[in-house]
Write a structure and sequence with these properties.
The chain is mainly β. 12% of the residues lie in helices and 46% in strands. It is built from 1 helix and 9 strands; from the N terminus they run βββββββββα.
């Protein structure tokens, strides 16, 4: 959905680059999920979080840390199946 103060600067099948109120951002055009796996202690408090550490030459140290994410595909009947598939892929 766009409004009068929004301008699409660039568009791909997956996202739009949008200018709104003098600021530029990216807006996804596909449905996606983010997964944050974790391990808890005996009281239910998180001990460890599951994140990705991926090579990225543009980041200091050459790596970036991010959450597991992915987009829905035609064979996914719902977001839960998308999340399961993405978690298995990573």
């Amino acid at each position: 959905m766009t409004n009068n103060s929004e301008k699409i600067l660039s568009s791909t099948p997956r996202f739009d680059v949008v200018e709104r109120e003098g600021k530029v951002g990216i807006r996804s055009t596909v449905e996606s999920v983010v997964i944050l796996p974790f391990v808890t202690d005996d009281q239910g408090l998180p001990l460890m979080l599951g994140v990705l550490k991926e090579k990225n030459p543009f980041r200091e140290g050459g790596y970036s840390i991010s959450l597991i994410s992915g987009t829905s595909e035609e064979e996914d009947p719902d977001f839960l199946e998308t999340a399961k598939r993405e978690l298995k892929e990573e």
